[in-house]
């Protein structure tokens, strides 16, 4: 029987203090292993960083409830120290990376959206990085440094499904892109440009606007002028909500596609309780399979646990964030070290998916979690808005990914599926 360890889900970082003369930030307690997580907890991408932290906190708690992490035959408590990059990694990483790695001695980092900014620092100070998801793929962040291990490659796993779905379900021949000129949206545009032609669609119009634009009317008129069969709206959840609303107000009744992770509650809150269900009719969300639509019983139960604990709908990335902690634990135990970063990175290359993970990872040669490019993959889904239940329903399961972003439709038995809510 494992002994129950005291659970401390996260420890606030001591920010804004130089490395010299710092006390109380690191720990010399050999009964504790502390890993770092650099996440967007404030700013535009806090919508994603917050749930990532919640899921990681839950995983840390469960690791400790199950006996902690065993190094050198000794069970130790696992802790997570979280650093906020403010959704401005180009500005914050030069100070956060030294804090996490040099000052606080993190043996491994969990990241999201910022690994491209971390990569330049890894040559002089290598540390294994488990990236929950990346903000760009050209080039793929895992190609920037051999210490970066990517759980989801962002657009190449998701956006290629847009063309396949529109061709199969709507016989669409054209699609327009409408989104802010920023990395998140630009990655989606690049994937559309590469893949929609494979499904007989013409990317008829590309309309981009400044990320800080408030009056979108002229951009919306430009997108509608080509009379496309569908429009893909790029950007984060907060960015697309007003765009979807204004497209419907302008009379566009055809399919709208997006990749945001927008939850039903967010649709209600951002668009408005009185109108959101009407606005969302004919909107399709493409993302990694969610806990609610994952065919695995473990993921379905995790989604219920996550919602019960945090009173929120768990989007796709909460599974990856939860799993990242178990992956970190398994890698350090395989390396039998919480300090030898090289051994931990080597262990990650050979790691099989820990049995406690819930996502349902596609295993590579030898049963490995990561392929030769240090990339893990899992199932994706197209979700359609159900106006009867005011929530998402699964419409199409598929896989895609680099290098060619080819789409393979996956037949998931409805009897094994948890069902969307």
TrEMBL record:
Residue ranges annotated for the Leucine-binding protein domain, each copy included: 33-359
One Pfam family, short name: Peripla_BP_6
Keywords noted in UniProt: Signal
Domain of life: Bacteria
Keyword Signal: yes
SUPFAM superfamilies: Periplasmic binding protein-like I
Similarity field: Belongs to the leucine-binding protein family.
PANTHER family listed in its UniProt record: LEUCINE-SPECIFIC-BINDING PROTEIN, PERIPLASMIC BINDING PROTEIN OF ABC TRANSPORTER FOR NATURAL AMINO ACIDS
Protein name: ABC-type transport system periplasmic substrate-binding protein
Source organism of this protein record: Mycolicibacterium smegmatis (strain MKD8)
């Amino acid at each position: 029987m494992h002994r129950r360890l005291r659970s401390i889900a996260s420890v606030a970082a001591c920010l804004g203090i130089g490395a010299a003369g710092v006390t109380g930030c690191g720990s010399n307690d050999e009964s504790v292993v502390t890993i770092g997580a650099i996440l967007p907890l404030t700013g535009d991408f806090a919508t994603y960083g917050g749930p990532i932290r919640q899921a990681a906190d839950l995983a840390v708690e469960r690791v400790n409830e199950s006996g902690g992490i065993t190094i050198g035959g000794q069970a130790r408590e696992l802790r997570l120290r979280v650093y906020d990059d403010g959704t401005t990694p180009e500005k914050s990483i030069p100070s956060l990376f030294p804090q996490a790695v040099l000052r606080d001695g993190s043996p491994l980092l969990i990241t999201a959206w910022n690994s491209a900014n971390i990569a330049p620092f890894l040559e002089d100070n290598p540390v294994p990085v488990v990236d929950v998801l990346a903000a760009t793929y050209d080039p793929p962040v895992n190609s920037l440094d051999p210490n970066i291990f990517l759980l989801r490659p962002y657009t190449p796993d998701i956006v290629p499904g847009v063309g396949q779905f529109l061709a199969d379900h709507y016989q669409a021949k054209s699609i327009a892109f409408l989104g802010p000129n920023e990395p998140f949206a630009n990655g989606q545009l690049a994937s559309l440009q590469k893949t929609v032609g494979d499904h007989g669609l013409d990317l008829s119009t590309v309309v981009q606007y400044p990320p800080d634009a408030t009056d979108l009317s002229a951009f919306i008129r430009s997108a509608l002028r080509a009379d496309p069969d569908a429009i893909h709206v790029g950007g984060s959840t907060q960015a697309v909500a007003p765009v979807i609303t204004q497209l419907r107000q302008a009379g566009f009744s055809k399919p709208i596609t997006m990749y945001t992770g927008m939850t039903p509650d967010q649709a209600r809150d951002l668009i408005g309780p009185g109108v959101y269900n009407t606005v969302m009719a004919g909107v399709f969300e493409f993302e990694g399979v969610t806990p609610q639509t994952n065919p695995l019983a473990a993921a379905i139960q995790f989604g219920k646990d996550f919602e019960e604990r945090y009173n929120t709908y768990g989007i796709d990335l909460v599974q990856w964030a939860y799993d990242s902690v178990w992956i970190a634990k398994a890698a350090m135990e395989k390396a039998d070290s919480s300090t030898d970063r090289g051994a931990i990175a080597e262990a990650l290359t050979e790691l099989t998916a820990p049995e406690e993970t819930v996502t349902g990872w596609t295993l590579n040669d030898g049963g490995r979690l990561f392929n030769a490019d240090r990339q893990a993959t899992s199932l994706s889904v197209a979700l359609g808005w159900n106006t009867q239940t005011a929530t998402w329903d699964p419409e199409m399961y598929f896989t895609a990914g680099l290098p060619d972003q080819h789409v393979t439709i996956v037949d998931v038995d409805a009897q094994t599926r948890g069902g969307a809510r």
